[in-house]
From TrEMBL:
Transmembrane segments: none annotated. This is DNA-directed RNA polymerase RpoA/D/Rpb3-type domain-containing protein. PANTHER family: DNA-DIRECTED RNA POLYMERASE (PTHR11800), DNA-DIRECTED RNA POLYMERASES I AND III SUBUNIT RPAC1 (PTHR11800:SF13). CDD domains: RNAP_I_II_AC40. Residues 5-215 form the DNA-directed RNA polymerase RpoA/D/Rpb3-type domain.
Amino acid sequence: MTDDELEFDMVGVDAAIANAFRRILLSEVPTMAIEKVFIYNNTSIIQDEVLAHRLGLIPIKADPRLNVPKIPSLKMPQILMKGDIRPEIDIKLHCVKGIGRDHAKFSPVATASYRLLPEITILRPVTGEMAERLQKCFSPGVIELENVNGKKQAVVKHARKDTCSREVFRHDDLKDLVKLSRIRDHFILESTGILQTDVLVSEAIKGHIGSYGSL
C-alpha cells in the first residue's frame, strides 16, 4: 500500500465476491465532487457549460465521512494562455457527497481490477543458455537464475509479477518444461483513487456488508 495505490489479496473466495468488491469500489464508496458551478465572469474561449463539466470531473481530496458542505470560492484572474490572451474566470464551486452509481464524477477510484494469482511450475531443471531464455520469456522478477553445481538454473521467485505472458510457448524446447496456471480462489485486487487506500478498503467492506449481508 502506498498513498496512491493499493494491492491486496483475497484468498479462499470465489469470483463473485472479488467482483463485488470491485463494483463497490467503483460505484458505492461515497466521495465529494463539484455539483454546482456559479460562473460570475468567464472571458476564456471555453464555453460556460464545458467549463462547468470539466470542473465537475476534478477529484476533490476531501474526506466524505465528514460533513463538508462546500469548498471555498475559487477565483482565477489573469491566467496566461496561448497567444498572450489573458482571460479572467471568476467562479464559485459547491461540492456535495455522492456515489459513482449516480454519476461517474463521484467514483473514488481511477481504476479497480482483480486478477487470479499466477502459478508457474518448472517441471524439469532448466540450466545454462535455456535458463537465460526462459527468464526472458517472463516479466522481470518472475524467473531468477541461481548457481546450482556451477550452472545457472532457472527458479520461480515471484509468480505474482507475471503478466500472463505466453512467450515461452514460442520456444519448442521450452514450452514443455513449464506449467502455467492460476490459483482459482486467490484474487489480487488493485486500485488507485482520490481517497486514502485504507479508507477505500474499509468503506468498500462496509458497502459489501450493507449490500450483500455479513461476510
